[in-house]
C-alpha cells in the first residue's frame, strides 16, 4: 500500500478532497493515512438515571500494512505540519460520522474528539464541518464536539471555534477536566454543555476518601455552572459506586463496555443498571448514610444532657456522658442567634487530637455558628436530633460530624452541639 500524498500546504481541506481517502469495507468504512488503515471504534456512554446508552464516543484505530496495531498517540505524532494535522483530524471525524450515519440509531449522541491544534488552526468559520453534516445526513444536535482540556496559545480563537460548533447546532464538551491544566476559568469562558472528568480523578477517589469528597465537590460545582458531567475510566464495580455517589450524570469505561470496531453489535451490549443501583442503595443505607444510626445511638445522652441543662446544671456535668464516648471530640452551647454561650468542652479524644499548628482556631468563646446548617436545622425543628454529613471543622481543620438539638431553657432557645470525629482514632 502506497502512502497517500499529503499537500505541503493545506489551509482548509474540504469534504471533496478527503472523500477519496475513505473506502467501503463490508458494512463499515475505513480510511487511509500514510500507509495506515484507519477504523472507527465506538464506546457506549450511559446515563445512570436513564439506565441506558445515551451516546457513543468515536475512537480511531489504526493498523499498518502488516495488520499490526498502531497506538493513537503514535498516529497523531505522524503529521509534520499544521495543515497535515488538520487533515488527519478532519479525516477521523469524516470516517466516524460516515460510519455512525449507517447505524440504525436516530436518537443517541456521537462524541467526536477535536485536536486542540486543529481547533486553533485555520479559519473557525470554514464550511467543512457544515458540509460534512449535510453529506452524512447526521443532525447537528446529535453531535458532541469534545475539546481536550489543555492550554492553548489563542484562547479567543478557541472560544470562537466553540461558538461556531454551537451555532451549527452541536453540543460541546470539555474533555479530560481534572488533568494538569484544568481550571474553572475555561469552563466559565467556554460554557460547555458537558464536562468529561479525567480518569485520574476517579483513580485517586478510589484510593483516598478525601479525594472522593473533592470529586463530589467538583461535580457539584460543575452542575452549578450549568454543565452535565461525564465520568470516564470506570473499570470496577467500586468505581461505579463512586460515580453514582458523586452525582455524575453519565459514565463510560471498561466496566460497562469496551470500545469496539464491530459497530453492529454495540446495541446488544448488556448493562444491568437495575442491579447496580440496587447494590448502591443497599450500600448507601449501611455505609454512606450513618445519620439515623448516630441519632439513635446518642439520643438518650442528648436528652439527659438537655434535661440537666434545663435544671441549671453546669455544662461540664450535663455533658459528661456525651464526652465519655470515644469518637466525641467536643460539646458546646449556642443561643437562638447561633452565638456560643460558654467555652467549648473538649473530651480526652479531642485533646489528644489537637494540632498546635491550628491553635489560633481553638478558642470559640462567643463564636457565631448561625451560618452552619446544623444550627439552623436545629432551631427550625426543636426537639429533633440533627446529624450532619462529614465536613471540615474550622476549629481544627479536621473532618467531623456534628449532632445538634434545640431545647428551651428559661423560655429561651438553646442548641446543644456535639462534634464527632469522622475518622476517630482506634
From TrEMBL:
Q: Which SUPFAM superfamilies match?
A: EAL domain-like, Sensory domain-like
Q: Which domain of life is it from?
A: Bacteria
PROSITE patterns cross-referenced by the UniProt entry: EAL (PS50883)
Q: In this protein, which residues make up the domain named EAL?
A: 21-273
Any one Pfam family match given in the protein's UniProt record, by short name: EAL
Please give the PANTHER family that the UniProt record associates with this protein. Answer: CYCLIC DI-GMP PHOSPHODIESTERASE PDEF, SIGNALING PROTEIN
Task: Tell me what this protein is called.
Answer: EAL domain-containing protein
